[in-house]
Automatic annotation (TrEMBL):
MF terms in GO: FAD binding; oxidoreductase activity
Protein name: FAD-linked oxidoreductase
Similarity comment: Belongs to the oxygen-dependent FAD-linked oxidoreductase family.
Lineage top rank: taxon: Eukaryota
Natural source organism: Lachnellula occidentalis
Record Pfam families: BBE, FAD_binding_4
Length: 599
């Protein structure tokens, strides 16, 4: 029975309805809510088409569906047996919105939850960055428009053991098939999907435990996290034992997957360091299919690369041990200054005074997320772990005093929580980017470039110039210096960054290829160049970068690139792991149909 297509259709439909049901169920507990998606598109930008690479049928390409090399149904079935029935054939999440599987009720329900991360991370194939879904099966396009697997993975193994990972890896290698590691599908760089690929889905690797750690680099509490653990689960687990750990401000992002591997910023960054700085040890399956324990003593080169050198590039991580810290009182301020009634000069002076006070704020261990445009400065989450209301007020006082001197009014609402664990559910729901509804990129501003008011004024003018072009400037300020004994592959420019600038172009619904190309052009050719010119030494955060950046090797990895490439050669000699902006990604290209080929 297993060897026929009918079996697969029934099997996959079963999974699909189960997944959809889960997605709908989870709607009310999802925490990654955003007010950004309600912002309006500003029209009037010229469209420039993307260059299309030449078609290639050469043997230097990965085997693609439809080609004679593609495994038979029997071959897939054999893999399914090997992974204990955990192989899922992709049925795009959007299929209830299209013929021949159209279902009006299910489609409406899906549209209602489409912009929630939970809808995608509960799926074995869907991704949150619209461009990489390529409208393969978009729920907002007309019922008659295409619903194909397209750029989604063809099959996914829902892994629960290291053997499942090894089986999938070996199958992909033996059959010359593109391989994808998928955790939550948050990746903005398209690295957790791929046309014609076999994926592994790490989402259900949910083991966790508390450890006492002691080596020459760190002594203290630690937490071991399975690769599927997300921010909200990790925080709930840690705080139940009066501990905290470093996660993203968006609580649905995975920890072990792309987040920690790419650097990882969040509310505790100024206090305890980047996500990557927390890693003590990994369990992995490398590109050769070997199970390895990885830490600063054993396979230390791989430790260095996995901790900051980018997700999905060197090995499949099964688990990570991260540092844990004691619970503390945590104070959060929500601050707003509006420009209405102020002269431009006064408003800009107020913004400059905000920037002037950031080092004072972040060097105390606090961080701030803020948005600036011509109408307001909104800083809804200034988070200070270990600080009382009076202490955080004192840190903000120099800014308040400048506002008073300028005769500018402001509102500030400060709440002190008895623990970080109590603050996190609030903090993580205030600002976070929704899934699928925007296109973005970042640039980092070094602290040394904001050393006087002339320089701060240029920064503020740059932000206003960008927001005048119709993008949202979502900004974060941190002190990302090394806390303690750290040696890893984090992008070196992170250490001297004072502000991480994310520029977000809202995308309208229904999605179409033209509107996203307009957004890409605006970001790559107009917005980011403002900051690349102001801060040529800044660089980008590889997890939230512009995936069209032609200079990505330098801008995302800097001086680490050559060393990271060497380490990849050791642990992934056959280049089974690929991402267009991952280390080694320039050695491949994708054809018009997104088939992956050697350069
Ligand atoms: C709504 C939203 C909010 C965000 N907020 C933050 C934030 O607060 N702070 C921050 O720093 N970043 C944030 N990001 C960016 C985030 O760090 C990246 O999207 C990151 O890649 C997500 O990792 P993931 O494992 O959850 O996602 P996935 O898309 O599943 O995977 C991301 C990458 O990691 C690889 N990968 C996944 N699992 C493994 C594994 N087990 N072993 C090896 N490789 C693996 C994948 O192949 C892919 O390359 C946010 C992104 C979104 C969409
Ligand atoms: C695929 O299945 C065919 C028989 O259907 C078999 O001959 C072949 O060896 C299999 N290929 C692989 C790579 O397992
Ligand atoms: C991406 O979308 C375009 C437009 O619909 C289509 O022509 C192309 O084939 C798609 N690519 C893939 C790989 O699905
Ligand atoms: C994936 O596996 C987990 C157990 O590891 C199971 O609970 C879940 O239902 C599976 N999901 C799908 C879609 O098969
Ligand atoms: C403030 O600056 C904006 C943008 O440059 C301009 O449109 C506006 O006229 C200025 N307002 C005043 C009062 O100068
Ligand atoms: C950042 O914080 C560390 C302590 O965590 C401190 O030593 C350092 O001076 C601060 N400033 C910079 C620029 O790193
Ligand atoms: C501040 O504002 C008040 C009332 O709006 C006004 O009376 C006063 O002159 C202003 N002071 C300065 C220094 O601008
Ligand atoms: C202040 O913030 C708290 C916590 O977010 C909220 O409950 C309260 O309503 C806010 N108060 C005002 C006046 O905005
Ligand atoms: C202000 O800072 C910038 C950037 O560091 C520097 O280039 C410039 O010389 C400084 N200007 C003054 C007046 O100190
Ligand atoms: C694409 O979307 C934009 C913005 O919503 C719209 O103006 C345009 O007409 C759409 N183009 C097509 C081809 O549907």
């Amino acid at each position: 029975m297993r060897d026929n297509d009918y079996y697969w259709i029934l099997y996959s439909l079963g999974i699909y309805f189960k997944t959809l049901w889960l997605a709908i169920n989870y709607y009310f507990v999802d925490s990654c809510y955003s007010f950004l998606s309600t912002m309006m598109i500003k029209p009037g930008i010229l469209w420039l088409g993307l260059l299309t690479p030449a078609l290639s049928q050469s043997t230097s390409c990965k085997c693609f569906p439809g080609e004679s090399c593609w495994p038979t149904v029997g071959n897939w079935s054999a893999l399914n047996d090997e992974v204990e029935g955990r192989l899922i054939q992709t049925i795009p999440l959007g299929s209830p919105c299209h013929d021949p599987t159209y279902d009006a009720e299910a489609c409406t329900a899906l549209q209602g939850v489409w912009f929630k991360p939970v809808t995608h991370y509960q799926s074995s194939s869907s991704v949150m960055e619209a461009f990489f879904a390529n409208a393969s099966c978009d729920p907002f396009l007309p019922r008659s428009s295409q619903c194909v697997i397209g750029t989604y993975v063809q099959y996914t193994v829902n892994v629960s053991t290291s053997d499942h990972v090894v089986s999938a890896l070996n199958f992909a290698k033996k059959n010359n098939i593109r391989f994808v590691i998928r955790n939550t599908g948050h990746d903005y760089e398209g690295k957790s999907t791929g046309a014609g690929a076999l994926g592994i889905w790490t989402h259900h690797l949910k083991d966790k435990s508390i450890l006492d750690w002691s080596d020459e680099h760190y002594q203290g509490k630690a937490i071991k996290l399975g690769a599927g653990i997300q921010g909200f689960e990790a925080i709930a687990f840690a705080t139940a034992s009066n501990l905290v750990l470093v996660t993203g401000i968006c609580s649905t992002v995975g920890i072990t997957g792309g987040y920690l591997a790419g650097g990882g910023h969040g509310p505790l960054l100024s206090k305890f360091g980047l996500g990557a700085d927390q890693a003590l040890e990994y369990e992995v399956i490398d590109g050769q299919g070997r199970y390895l324990t990885v830490n600063r003593m054993t396979n230390s080169d791989l430790y260095w690369a996995l901790s900051g050198g980018g997700g999905g590039t060197y090995a499949v991580v099964l688990s990570v041990v991260v540092k844990a810290y004691p619970e503390e009182v945590t104070t959060v301020t929500n601050l707003a200054v509006y420009s209405a009634g102020l002269s431009n000069e006064t408003y800009i002076s107020a913004l400059v005074s905000w920037v002037r006070n950031l080092p004072n704020l972040v060097d105390s261990g606090a961080m701030a997320t803020f948005l600036i445009d011509r109408t307001s400065l909104l800083a809804p989450t200034i988070v200070a772990y270990g600080k009382t209301t009076d202490e955080l007020n004192a840190l903000l006082q120099p800014f308040y005093s400048s506002l008073i001197a300028l005769n500018v009014t402001y509102s500030a609402n400060t709440t002190t929580y008895s623990t970080y664990g109590e603050s996190y559910p609030v903090v993580s729901t205030v600002i976070s980017d929704d899934a699928y509804s925007s296109h973005g990129g970042t640039w980092l501003t070094p602290r040394a470039s904001l050393a006087n008011d002339t320089a701060r004024n240029a920064y503020v003018e740059g932000i206003l110039e960008a927001t005048d072009l119709g993008v949202t400037a979502l900004l974060g300020s941190w002190n990302a210096s090394k806390k303690g004994d750290i040696d890893n592959g984090v992008f070196p420019q992170w250490r001297s960054t004072l502000i991480g600038n994310a520029f977000i172009v809202p995308l309208s619904t229904p999605w179409n290829l033209t509107s996203i190309e307009v957004a890409q052009h605006l970001l790559t050719n107009q917005v980011l160049p403002i900051f690349q010119k102001l801060y040529p030494d800044g660089g980008a955060y590889l997890n939230e970068a512009d995936y069209n950046d032609p200079n990505w090797k330098v801008n995302f990895y800097g001086t680490n690139y050559a060393k990271l490439r060497e380490i990849k050669t050791i642990y992934d000699p056959s280049d089974i792991f690929y991402g267009s902006t991952a280390v080694g990604g320039d050695e491949w290209y994708q054809t018009e149909t997104k088939q992956l080929c050697r350069v």
